[in-house]
Protein backbone atom coordinates (compact mmCIF):
# COMPACT_ATOMS: atom_id res chain seq x y z
CA UNK A 1 0.00 0.00 0.00
CA UNK A 2 1.29 3.46 -0.91
CA UNK A 3 2.23 5.87 1.86
CA UNK A 4 -0.23 8.72 2.30
CA UNK A 5 1.42 12.15 2.12
CA UNK A 6 0.75 15.82 1.56
CA UNK A 7 2.43 17.84 -1.15
CA UNK A 8 4.43 19.88 1.34
CA UNK A 9 6.19 16.71 2.52
CA UNK A 10 6.96 15.01 -0.80
CA UNK A 11 10.65 15.87 -0.36
CA UNK A 12 10.67 13.12 2.27
CA UNK A 13 9.46 10.51 -0.25
CA UNK A 14 11.70 10.85 -3.32
CA UNK A 15 11.69 7.53 -5.18
CA UNK A 16 8.74 6.26 -3.18
CA UNK A 17 5.14 5.63 -4.18
CA UNK A 18 2.72 7.89 -2.29
CA UNK A 19 -0.98 8.74 -2.35
CA UNK A 20 -2.12 12.35 -2.09
CA UNK A 21 -5.65 13.70 -1.70
CA UNK A 22 -5.85 16.64 -4.06
CA UNK A 23 -7.85 18.90 -6.35
CA UNK A 24 -7.15 19.62 -10.01
CA UNK A 25 -5.91 23.19 -10.26
CA UNK A 26 -5.40 22.92 -14.01
CA UNK A 27 -4.33 20.40 -16.60
CA UNK A 28 -2.94 20.16 -20.08
CA UNK A 29 -2.25 17.38 -22.54
CA UNK A 30 0.56 16.68 -24.98
CA UNK A 31 -0.64 13.76 -27.04
CA UNK A 32 0.18 10.67 -25.04
CA UNK A 33 1.09 12.56 -21.84
CA UNK A 34 -1.26 14.41 -19.49
CA UNK A 35 0.00 16.97 -17.01
CA UNK A 36 -2.15 17.39 -13.91
CA UNK A 37 -1.59 20.50 -11.81
CA UNK A 38 -2.46 19.26 -8.35
CA UNK A 39 -3.06 21.17 -5.12
CA UNK A 40 -3.95 19.90 -1.66
CA UNK A 41 -3.84 23.07 0.45
CA UNK A 42 -0.27 22.46 1.58
CA UNK A 43 1.26 23.11 -1.82
CA UNK A 44 1.30 22.39 -5.55
CA UNK A 45 2.83 19.58 -7.60
CA UNK A 46 2.57 18.40 -11.18
CA UNK A 47 1.36 14.87 -11.79
CA UNK A 48 2.53 13.33 -15.08
CA UNK A 49 0.34 10.61 -16.63
CA UNK A 50 2.06 8.68 -19.43
CA UNK A 51 -0.40 6.66 -21.52
CA UNK A 52 2.01 3.79 -22.16
CA UNK A 53 2.74 3.40 -18.43
CA UNK A 54 -0.80 3.28 -16.96
CA UNK A 55 -3.95 1.26 -17.47
CA UNK A 56 -6.61 2.42 -19.88
CA UNK A 57 -8.87 3.18 -16.90
CA UNK A 58 -6.30 5.47 -15.28
CA UNK A 59 -5.73 7.25 -18.60
CA UNK A 60 -9.46 7.77 -19.16
CA UNK A 61 -9.96 8.94 -15.57
CA UNK A 62 -7.20 11.49 -16.04
CA UNK A 63 -8.84 12.73 -19.25
CA UNK A 64 -12.17 13.17 -17.48
CA UNK A 65 -10.79 15.39 -14.69
CA UNK A 66 -12.04 18.97 -14.69
CA UNK A 67 -10.92 22.08 -12.80
CA UNK A 68 -11.41 21.59 -9.04
CA UNK A 69 -12.36 17.94 -9.34
CA UNK A 70 -11.20 16.01 -6.29
CA UNK A 71 -9.25 12.77 -6.30
CA UNK A 72 -6.74 10.51 -4.65
CA UNK A 73 -3.70 10.33 -6.88
CA UNK A 74 -0.98 7.72 -6.48
CA UNK A 75 2.48 7.86 -7.99
CA UNK A 76 6.24 7.95 -7.61
CA UNK A 77 7.86 11.17 -6.38
CA UNK A 78 10.90 12.35 -8.26
CA UNK A 79 13.04 15.47 -8.21
CA UNK A 80 12.36 18.00 -10.97
CA UNK A 81 14.43 21.21 -10.73
CA UNK A 82 12.29 22.94 -13.37
CA UNK A 83 9.12 22.74 -11.29
CA UNK A 84 8.17 25.37 -8.72
CA UNK A 85 8.20 22.85 -5.88
CA UNK A 86 11.31 21.05 -7.10
CA UNK A 87 9.41 17.75 -7.42
CA UNK A 88 6.99 15.94 -9.70
CA UNK A 89 4.84 12.84 -9.43
CA UNK A 90 4.80 10.09 -12.05
CA UNK A 91 1.17 9.00 -11.74
CA UNK A 92 0.34 5.30 -11.48
CA UNK A 93 -3.20 5.42 -10.12
CA UNK A 94 -6.23 7.72 -9.83
CA UNK A 95 -9.31 7.41 -7.65
CA UNK A 96 -11.87 10.09 -8.52
CA UNK A 97 -13.81 11.47 -5.57
CA UNK A 98 -15.91 14.08 -7.35
CA UNK A 99 -16.02 15.50 -10.88
CA UNK A 100 -16.78 19.21 -10.88
CA UNK A 101 -18.91 20.84 -13.59
CA UNK A 102 -18.91 24.49 -14.63
CA UNK A 103 -16.55 25.73 -11.91
CA UNK A 104 -17.30 29.48 -11.53
CA UNK A 105 -13.72 30.78 -11.30
CA UNK A 106 -11.68 30.01 -14.39
CA UNK A 107 -8.17 31.12 -15.43
CA UNK A 108 -9.73 34.06 -17.31
CA UNK A 109 -10.03 37.51 -15.73
CA UNK A 110 -12.97 38.14 -13.40
CA UNK A 111 -14.17 41.41 -11.89
CA UNK A 112 -13.54 42.15 -8.22
CA UNK A 113 -17.24 42.06 -7.30
CA UNK A 114 -17.62 38.68 -8.96
CA UNK A 115 -14.59 37.33 -7.13
CA UNK A 116 -15.82 38.71 -3.81
CA UNK A 117 -19.23 37.10 -4.37
CA UNK A 118 -17.32 33.84 -4.81
CA UNK A 119 -14.78 34.47 -2.05
CA UNK A 120 -15.36 30.96 -0.71
CA UNK A 121 -13.97 29.64 -4.00
CA UNK A 122 -11.55 32.46 -4.79
CA UNK A 123 -9.56 31.40 -1.71
CA UNK A 124 -8.50 28.29 -3.63
CA UNK A 125 -6.41 30.21 -6.16
CA UNK A 126 -2.64 30.19 -5.82
CA UNK A 127 -2.30 33.86 -4.94
CA UNK A 128 -5.06 33.85 -2.35
CA UNK A 129 -3.70 30.68 -0.78
CA UNK A 130 -0.24 32.27 -0.57
CA UNK A 131 -1.68 35.35 1.16
CA UNK A 132 -3.42 33.16 3.76
CA UNK A 133 -0.20 31.22 4.40
CA UNK A 134 1.70 34.50 4.90
CA UNK A 135 -1.06 35.78 7.20
CA UNK A 136 -0.75 32.60 9.28
CA UNK A 137 3.04 33.04 9.49
CA UNK A 138 2.60 36.65 10.62
CA UNK A 139 0.24 35.47 13.37
CA UNK A 140 2.69 32.76 14.42
CA UNK A 141 5.57 35.25 14.49
CA UNK A 142 3.54 37.80 16.49
CA UNK A 143 2.80 35.23 19.16
CA UNK A 144 6.36 33.89 19.14
CA UNK A 145 7.81 37.38 19.65
CA UNK A 146 5.64 38.23 22.62
CA UNK A 147 5.68 34.76 24.15
CA UNK A 148 9.49 34.73 24.18
CA UNK A 149 9.84 38.30 25.45
CA UNK A 150 8.00 38.04 28.74
CA UNK A 151 4.48 38.95 27.63
CA UNK A 152 1.35 37.09 28.74
CA UNK A 153 -1.57 36.61 26.34
CA UNK A 154 -4.80 38.05 27.77
CA UNK A 155 -8.22 38.05 26.07
CA UNK A 156 -10.28 41.23 26.55
CA UNK A 157 -14.07 41.16 26.07
CA UNK A 158 -15.68 41.63 22.66
CA UNK A 159 -18.88 43.07 24.14
CA UNK A 160 -18.20 46.32 26.00
CA UNK A 161 -20.38 48.93 27.74
CA UNK A 162 -18.68 51.90 26.07
CA UNK A 163 -16.07 53.09 23.58
CA UNK A 164 -12.37 52.60 24.19
CA UNK A 165 -11.51 55.94 22.63
CA UNK A 166 -14.58 58.07 23.27
CA UNK A 167 -15.79 57.82 19.66
CA UNK A 168 -19.25 57.08 18.30
CA UNK A 169 -18.22 54.72 15.48
CA UNK A 170 -19.53 51.66 17.31
CA UNK A 171 -21.82 48.74 16.55
CA UNK A 172 -24.67 48.81 19.04
CA UNK A 173 -26.43 45.74 20.40
CA UNK A 174 -28.59 44.88 23.38
CA UNK A 175 -27.04 43.04 26.31
CA UNK A 176 -30.27 41.84 27.92
CA UNK A 177 -31.62 45.11 29.39
CA UNK A 178 -28.43 47.12 28.86
CA UNK A 179 -26.79 48.74 25.86
CA UNK A 180 -23.58 47.14 24.64
CA UNK A 181 -21.14 47.60 21.77
CA UNK A 182 -18.81 45.45 19.73
CA UNK A 183 -15.28 46.29 20.80
CA UNK A 184 -13.23 48.74 18.77
CA UNK A 185 -10.16 48.07 20.94
CA UNK A 186 -9.22 45.96 23.94
CA UNK A 187 -6.72 48.54 25.13
CA UNK A 188 -8.39 49.77 28.32
CA UNK A 189 -8.83 46.21 29.55
CA UNK A 190 -5.26 45.41 28.62
CA UNK A 191 -4.08 48.29 30.81
CA UNK A 192 -5.85 46.60 33.72
CA UNK A 193 -4.19 43.30 32.79
CA UNK A 194 -0.76 44.98 32.67
CA UNK A 195 -1.22 46.16 36.25
CA UNK A 196 -1.64 42.50 37.21
CA UNK A 197 0.83 40.77 34.89
CA UNK A 198 3.40 43.42 33.91
CA UNK A 199 3.63 42.86 30.16
CA UNK A 200 0.59 41.58 28.28
CA UNK A 201 -0.81 41.36 24.78
CA UNK A 202 -4.18 40.61 23.23
CA UNK A 203 -4.96 39.22 19.81
CA UNK A 204 -8.54 39.36 18.68
CA UNK A 205 -11.24 40.80 16.42
CA UNK A 206 -12.24 44.46 16.57
CA UNK A 207 -15.03 46.36 14.86
CA UNK A 208 -15.32 49.91 13.50
CA UNK A 209 -18.65 51.26 12.26
CA UNK A 210 -16.96 53.79 10.00
CA UNK A 211 -18.59 54.21 6.62
CA UNK A 212 -15.27 54.12 4.86
CA UNK A 213 -14.66 52.58 1.45
CA UNK A 214 -10.90 53.08 1.13
CA UNK A 215 -8.49 50.30 0.24
CA UNK A 216 -7.09 50.43 3.78
CA UNK A 217 -10.32 49.90 5.75
CA UNK A 218 -12.33 46.92 6.93
CA UNK A 219 -15.34 46.85 9.25
CA UNK A 220 -14.10 43.75 11.08
CA UNK A 221 -10.38 43.24 11.54
CA UNK A 222 -7.85 41.75 13.96
CA UNK A 223 -5.70 43.72 16.37
CA UNK A 224 -2.60 42.90 18.40
CA UNK A 225 -2.53 45.15 21.47
CA UNK A 226 0.40 44.95 23.92
CA UNK A 227 0.48 46.95 27.16
CA UNK A 228 3.58 47.30 29.34
CA UNK A 229 3.82 48.45 32.96
CA UNK A 230 6.87 50.50 34.03
CA UNK A 231 7.54 51.36 30.38
CA UNK A 232 7.93 54.85 28.94
CA UNK A 233 7.36 56.15 25.43
CA UNK A 234 10.95 55.65 24.27
CA UNK A 235 11.10 52.07 25.53
CA UNK A 236 7.81 51.32 23.77
CA UNK A 237 9.18 52.57 20.44
CA UNK A 238 12.12 50.22 20.78
CA UNK A 239 9.79 47.28 21.39
CA UNK A 240 7.70 48.23 18.35
CA UNK A 241 10.59 48.37 15.90
CA UNK A 242 12.13 45.15 17.20
CA UNK A 243 8.73 43.46 17.00
CA UNK A 244 8.05 44.50 13.40
CA UNK A 245 11.58 43.54 12.32
CA UNK A 246 11.12 40.10 13.85
CA UNK A 247 7.75 39.52 12.16
CA UNK A 248 8.91 40.64 8.71
CA UNK A 249 12.10 38.58 8.81
CA UNK A 250 10.13 35.52 9.95
CA UNK A 251 7.97 35.85 6.84
CA UNK A 252 11.03 36.29 4.62
CA UNK A 253 12.60 33.19 6.14
CA UNK A 254 9.56 30.89 6.21
CA UNK A 255 7.36 32.07 3.30
CA UNK A 256 9.79 32.82 0.49
CA UNK A 257 7.96 30.52 -1.92
CA UNK A 258 4.62 32.23 -1.17
CA UNK A 259 6.15 35.71 -1.51
CA UNK A 260 7.55 34.72 -4.88
CA UNK A 261 4.17 33.27 -5.93
CA UNK A 262 2.47 36.64 -5.41
CA UNK A 263 5.31 38.56 -7.06
CA UNK A 264 6.52 40.38 -3.95
CA UNK A 265 9.89 42.18 -4.12
CA UNK A 266 11.56 40.31 -1.26
CA UNK A 267 14.58 42.64 -1.18
CA UNK A 268 12.34 45.41 0.15
CA UNK A 269 11.31 43.18 3.05
CA UNK A 270 14.87 42.07 3.75
CA UNK A 271 15.71 45.74 4.39
CA UNK A 272 13.22 45.95 7.28
CA UNK A 273 15.60 45.89 10.23
CA UNK A 274 15.51 47.99 13.43
CA UNK A 275 16.14 50.80 14.20
CA UNK A 276 13.50 52.75 12.25
CA UNK A 277 13.66 56.47 11.39
CA UNK A 278 11.66 58.96 13.46
CA UNK A 279 10.26 62.39 12.79
CA UNK A 280 8.05 64.58 14.94
CA UNK A 281 4.62 65.78 13.90
CA UNK A 282 6.12 69.29 13.59
CA UNK A 283 8.80 68.04 11.22
CA UNK A 284 6.19 66.12 9.23
CA UNK A 285 4.09 69.28 8.83
CA UNK A 286 7.12 71.23 7.62
CA UNK A 287 8.01 68.49 5.13
CA UNK A 288 4.46 68.30 3.79
CA UNK A 289 4.46 72.06 3.20
CA UNK A 290 7.59 71.67 1.05
CA UNK A 291 5.71 69.02 -0.94
CA UNK A 292 2.82 71.33 -1.72
CA UNK A 293 0.34 70.13 0.92
CA UNK A 294 -1.72 72.89 2.51
CA UNK A 295 -2.21 71.31 5.93
CA UNK A 296 -2.36 73.43 9.09
CA UNK A 297 -0.73 72.47 12.38
CA UNK A 298 -3.25 70.59 14.50
CA UNK A 299 -4.88 68.64 11.67
CA UNK A 300 -4.53 64.87 11.44
CA UNK A 301 -2.81 63.23 8.50
CA UNK A 302 -4.72 61.44 5.76
CA UNK A 303 -3.55 58.74 3.40
CA UNK A 304 -1.90 61.14 0.89
CA UNK A 305 0.09 62.81 3.69
CA UNK A 306 1.27 59.49 5.14
CA UNK A 307 2.24 58.21 1.69
CA UNK A 308 4.29 61.34 0.92
CA UNK A 309 6.17 60.99 4.21
CA UNK A 310 6.74 57.26 3.79
CA UNK A 311 8.21 57.72 0.29
CA UNK A 312 11.31 59.24 1.90
CA UNK A 313 12.17 55.95 3.60
CA UNK A 314 12.68 52.27 2.77
CA UNK A 315 11.70 51.25 6.30
CA UNK A 316 8.68 52.05 8.46
CA UNK A 317 8.90 55.54 9.95
CA UNK A 318 7.64 56.77 13.33
CA UNK A 319 5.76 60.07 13.44
CA UNK A 320 5.85 61.18 17.07
CA UNK A 321 4.41 63.89 19.32
CA UNK A 322 1.05 64.61 17.72
CA UNK A 323 -1.12 67.47 19.01
CA UNK A 324 -3.17 66.41 22.03
CA UNK A 325 -6.35 67.69 20.38
CA UNK A 326 -6.36 65.02 17.67
CA UNK A 327 -5.42 62.06 19.84
CA UNK A 328 -7.25 59.90 22.37
CA UNK A 329 -8.00 61.10 25.89
CA UNK A 330 -5.69 58.60 27.60
CA UNK A 331 -2.42 59.69 25.93
CA UNK A 332 0.14 61.33 28.22
CA UNK A 333 1.17 64.92 27.44
CA UNK A 334 4.85 65.64 26.89
CA UNK A 335 6.00 67.15 30.21
CA UNK A 336 8.13 69.67 28.31
CA UNK A 337 5.37 70.62 25.89
CA UNK A 338 1.86 69.74 27.09
CA UNK A 339 0.13 70.64 23.81
CA UNK A 340 1.59 67.44 22.26
CA UNK A 341 1.41 63.89 23.56
CA UNK A 342 3.95 61.09 23.98
CA UNK A 343 2.68 59.02 21.08
CA UNK A 344 3.72 57.66 17.72
CA UNK A 345 2.19 56.26 14.57
CA UNK A 346 4.30 53.79 12.62
CA UNK A 347 3.85 54.39 8.88
CA UNK A 348 4.69 51.47 6.60
CA UNK A 349 6.72 52.13 3.43
CA UNK A 350 5.36 51.83 -0.11
CA UNK A 351 2.15 53.74 0.63
CA UNK A 352 0.53 51.35 3.10
CA UNK A 353 -0.11 53.93 5.79
CA UNK A 354 -0.33 53.51 9.55
CA UNK A 355 0.15 49.97 10.83
CA UNK A 356 0.80 50.80 14.51
CA UNK A 357 -0.55 53.49 16.80
CA UNK A 358 0.80 53.75 20.33
CA UNK A 359 1.49 56.04 23.25
CA UNK A 360 2.51 56.38 26.84
CA UNK A 361 -0.69 56.38 28.87
CA UNK A 362 -1.70 59.01 31.42
CA UNK A 363 -0.81 57.70 34.89
CA UNK A 364 -1.76 60.81 36.90
CA UNK A 365 -5.31 60.31 38.29
CA UNK A 366 -6.01 64.05 38.49
CA UNK A 367 -4.97 64.65 34.87
CA UNK A 368 -7.01 61.69 33.66
CA UNK A 369 -10.07 63.05 35.46
CA UNK A 370 -9.55 66.37 33.70
CA UNK A 371 -9.40 64.55 30.36
CA UNK A 372 -12.71 62.83 31.12
CA UNK A 373 -14.32 66.23 31.61
CA UNK A 374 -12.74 67.71 28.47
CA UNK A 375 -13.99 64.80 26.36
CA UNK A 376 -17.37 64.72 28.14
CA UNK A 377 -16.92 61.11 29.18
CA UNK A 378 -18.99 59.56 31.94
CA UNK A 379 -17.00 59.12 35.14
CA UNK A 380 -19.46 56.45 36.21
CA UNK A 381 -18.88 54.40 33.06
CA UNK A 382 -15.09 54.70 33.30
CA UNK A 383 -14.79 54.39 37.09
CA UNK A 384 -13.03 51.03 36.83
CA UNK A 385 -10.47 52.62 34.47
CA UNK A 386 -9.88 55.42 36.98
CA UNK A 387 -9.25 52.79 39.65
CA UNK A 388 -6.10 51.77 37.77
CA UNK A 389 -4.69 55.22 38.61
CA UNK A 390 -6.04 55.31 42.16
CA UNK A 391 -4.51 52.03 43.27
CA UNK A 392 -0.82 51.74 42.46
CA UNK A 393 -0.53 53.84 39.31
CA UNK A 394 2.72 53.44 37.34
CA UNK A 395 4.16 54.73 34.06
CA UNK A 396 2.93 52.46 31.30
CA UNK A 397 2.75 52.35 27.52
CA UNK A 398 1.16 50.31 24.79
CA UNK A 399 0.32 50.11 21.12
CA UNK A 400 -1.97 48.44 18.62
CA UNK A 401 -1.04 46.69 15.38
CA UNK A 402 -3.65 46.20 12.67
CA UNK A 403 -3.09 42.71 11.32
CA UNK A 404 -4.74 43.16 7.93
CA UNK A 405 -2.86 46.36 7.02
CA UNK A 406 0.34 44.60 8.02
CA UNK A 407 -0.51 41.63 5.78
CA UNK A 408 -1.29 44.03 2.91
CA UNK A 409 2.08 45.73 3.29
CA UNK A 410 4.15 42.57 3.63
CA UNK A 411 2.36 40.96 0.67
CA UNK A 412 2.40 44.14 -1.43
CA UNK A 413 -1.37 44.04 -2.04
CA UNK A 414 -3.42 46.84 -3.57
CA UNK A 415 -6.41 46.34 -1.26
CA UNK A 416 -6.86 45.14 2.30
CA UNK A 417 -9.89 43.00 1.36
CA UNK A 418 -7.55 40.21 0.17
CA UNK A 419 -5.80 39.97 3.55
CA UNK A 420 -8.61 38.27 5.50
CA UNK A 421 -10.46 35.08 4.53
CA UNK A 422 -13.93 36.64 4.44
CA UNK A 423 -13.74 40.46 4.47
CA UNK A 424 -16.46 42.61 5.98
CA UNK A 425 -16.63 45.95 4.18
CA UNK A 426 -19.19 48.75 4.01
CA UNK A 427 -21.35 46.98 1.43
CA UNK A 428 -20.38 43.35 1.94
CA UNK A 429 -21.64 40.84 4.48
CA UNK A 430 -21.77 37.87 2.03
CA UNK A 431 -20.49 35.21 1.89
Structural commentary:
The structure is a single chain. The protein has helices at residues 56-64, 112-117, 119-122, 126-147, 187-197, 233-254, 256-261, 266-270, 281-290, 303-310, 365-374, 383-390, 403-411; strands at 3-4, 17-30, 33-39, 44-50, 70-79, 87-98, 152-153, 159-160, 172-175, 178-182, 199-207, 220-229, 278-280, 317-320, 333-334, 337-341, 343-348, 353-360, 396-402. Helix 4 crosses helix 6 (233-254) and helix 4 (126-147) crosses helix 13 (403-411). The model has no long low-confidence stretch (mean pLDDT 96). It has two domains: 3-98, OB fold (Dihydrolipoamide Acetyltransferase, E2P); 119-419, 2-Layer Sandwich (BirA Bifunctional Protein, domain 2). A hairpin with a 2-residue loop joins strand 15 (333-334) and strand 16 (337-341). The strands form four sheets. Strands 7-11-12-19-18-17-14-13 form an eight-stranded mixed beta sheet. The chain contains 13 helices and 19 strands. The two termini are 41 Å apart. It is elongated, with a radius of gyration of 26 Å. With 431 residues, the protein is α+β, with helices and mostly antiparallel strands.
CATH topology of the largest domain: BirA Bifunctional Protein, domain 2
Radius of gyration: 26 Å
**Architecture of the largest domain, CATH level 2?**
2-Layer Sandwich
Please give the domain count: 2
Query: In DSSP terms, counting alpha (H) and pi (I) runs of 4 or more, how many helices?
Result: 13
Q: Based on DSSP secondary structure assignment, what is the total number of beta strands?
A: 19
Catalogue the unreliable spans: none
Question: What is the strand arrangement across the widest sheet?
Answer: 7-11-12-19-18-17-14-13
CATH class of the largest domain: Alpha Beta
For the biggest sheet, the summary is: 8 strands, mixed
**Strand proportion:** 25-35%
The outline comes out as elongated
CATH superfamily of the largest domain: Bira Bifunctional Protein, Domain 2
Q: Classify the helix fraction into a percent range.
A: 25-40%
Mean pLDDT: 96
Q: How would you classify the helix and strand content by structural class?
A: alpha+beta
Q: How widely separated are the two ends?
A: 41 Å
InterPro entries: Aa-tRNA-synt_II, aa-tRNA-synth_II, aa-tRNA-synth_II/BPL/LPL, Asn-tRNA-ligase, Asp/Asn-tRNA-synth_IIb, NA-bd_OB-fold, NA-bd_OB_tRNA
GO cellular component, one term: cytoplasm
Subcellular location: Cytoplasm
Pfam family, one: tRNA_anti-codon
Amino acid sequence: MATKSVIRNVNQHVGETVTIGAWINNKRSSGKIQFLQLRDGSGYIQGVVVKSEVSEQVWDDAKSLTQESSLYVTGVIREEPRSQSGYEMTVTGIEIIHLTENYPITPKEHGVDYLMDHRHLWLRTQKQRAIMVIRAEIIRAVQAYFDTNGFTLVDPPILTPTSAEGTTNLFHTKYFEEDAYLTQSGQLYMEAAAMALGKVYSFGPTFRAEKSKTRRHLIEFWMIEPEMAFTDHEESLQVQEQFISYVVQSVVKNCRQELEAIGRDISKLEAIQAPFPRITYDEAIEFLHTQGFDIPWGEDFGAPHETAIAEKYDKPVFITHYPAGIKAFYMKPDPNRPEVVLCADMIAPEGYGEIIGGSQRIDDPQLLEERFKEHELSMETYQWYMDLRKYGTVPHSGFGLGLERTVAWICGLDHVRETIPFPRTLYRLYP
